[in-house]
């Protein structure tokens, strides 16, 4: 499981760390990779240590765009438990890499991720864990949502489509 975001309160990454505690109970070899940095990194690392998850959780900090795509290619799920978002380019990039998205059940994610995503109560780490595990434990659903994610990212958010939309705005 990976996530890419600034480590600030609105991104709610502590809920993802707490959810991961439940995930590794059923799948002990699972890993959670954080891409990004911010003022809450120390607190998230401390929470990881307190829950004894240091062998399963990695904090990679800010990395190059190429490295982000490498991590996406090596991951199975993109999770983003934010309380609020503006658009979430990272979710679109993850979808373009074929990653199913587990996101907060908030309006912007329904708009961006669409029907291919799985939505979760971002205030409930157990719900986040069960939603991630649903993909981990159901290969057919995983494959279907992976394909749908890639298709949505490349059709709805293609560079050509974005350029046309900006052109229409300026026109």
What does this structure look like?
The protein is mostly helical and 171 residues long. It is 53% helix and 12% strand. It is built from eight helices and six strands, in the order E-H-E-H-E-H-E-H-E-H-E-H-H-H. The protein has helices spanning 13-26, 41-50, 65-74, 89-96, 107-113, 125-136, 139-156, 159-170, and strands at 2-4, 32-35, 57-59, 78-80, 101-104, 118-120. The strands form two sheets. The chain has a three-stranded parallel beta sheet with strand order 1-2-3, with helices on both faces. Strands 4-5-6 form a three-stranded parallel beta sheet, with helices on both faces. Helix 1 packs across helix 6 and helix 4 (89-96) crosses helix 7. The longest helix has 18 residues, at 139-156. The termini are far apart. The model has no long low-confidence stretch (mean pLDDT 93).
User: How would you write the strand order of the largest sheet?
Assistant: 1-2-3
Tally of individual helices: 8
Distance between the termini: 42 Å
Stretches with pLDDT under 50, minimum 5 residues = none
Portion in helices: 40-55%
Structural class: mainly alpha
Strand content: 5-15%
Mean pLDDT: 93
What sequence of helices (H) and strands (E) makes up the elements?
A: EHEHEHEHEHEHHH
Strand tally: 6
Main pleated-sheet profile: 3 strands, parallel
Backbone CA Rg: 16 Å
Compile the SSE list and pairings.
Elements: E1 2-4, H1 13-26, E2 32-35, H2 41-50, E3 57-59, H3 65-74, E4 78-80, H4 89-96, E5 101-104, H5 107-113, E6 118-120, H6 125-136, H7 139-156, H8 159-170
Parallel strand pairs: 1-2, 2-3, 4-5, 5-6
